[in-house]
Q: What sequence folds into this?
């Protein structure tokens, strides 16, 4: 039978005007939180969708916050399985993801993430975080080369490079902490990275 999730125009769902219950809203918030933590949606999308979910009063409004993330197909308004399934992460994967970022402290700084990404299962949390760690380290190396050139050409000494190293140390540590916590480590800085990290929703069609 053809799926008629999110109210097929030919078969409008008469319950879309029903008031949203606290249980339904809480479940929508949980889906959005899981999708953000796994990298299925970025920070801006997460904030917009979360605001829609929290302020929704009808099922139609709540459904719009989950469009493309979860299927809502039952007349009773119960949420079915998500279309983009957030990764089921465990402590082992989180620990591995965190140490993958910390491996960036070892020269050559990108080698650890490259090795982990090569051996991890494509689409897994460890694979995604290795890609994010690699993306940041490549960005940091490129930035260091640019700063080094500026220092050499302008002969302004080492303070600029020193500040760059401090920024790299702090950012690498913060990314590792977020990875240990099961979060998308680069969500807050992804737009600033010229080497874009992999996203879970880009991998769904490749599995």
A:
């Amino acid at each position: 039978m053809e799926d008629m999730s999110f109210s097929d125009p030919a078969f409008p769902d008469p319950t879309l005007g029903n008031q949203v219950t606290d249980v339904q809203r809480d479940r929508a918030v949980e889906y959005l939180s899981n999708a953000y933590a796994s990298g299925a949606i970025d920070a801006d999308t997460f904030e917009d969708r979360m605001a829609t979910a929290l302020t929704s009063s009808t099922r139609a409004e709540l459904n719009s916050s989950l469009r493309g993330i979860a299927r809502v197909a039952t007349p009773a308004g119960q949420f079915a399985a998500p279309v983009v399934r957030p990764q089921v992460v465990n402590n082992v994967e989180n620990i591995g993801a965190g140490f993958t970022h910390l491996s960036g402290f070892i020269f050559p700084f990108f080698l650890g993430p490259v090795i982990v990404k090569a051996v991890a299962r494509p689409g897994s949390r460890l694979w995604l975080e290795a890609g994010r760690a690699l993306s940041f380290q490549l960005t940091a190396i490129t930035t260091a080369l640019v700063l080094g050139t500026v220092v050499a050409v302008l002969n302004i000494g080492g303070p600029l490079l020193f500040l760059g190293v401090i920024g790299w140390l702090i950012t690498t540590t913060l990314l590792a902490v977020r990875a240990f916590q099961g979060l998308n480590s680069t969500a807050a800085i992804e737009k600033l990275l010229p080497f874009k990290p992999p996203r879970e929703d880009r991998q769904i069609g490749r599995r």
In short: DSSP finds eight helices and no strands in the chain.
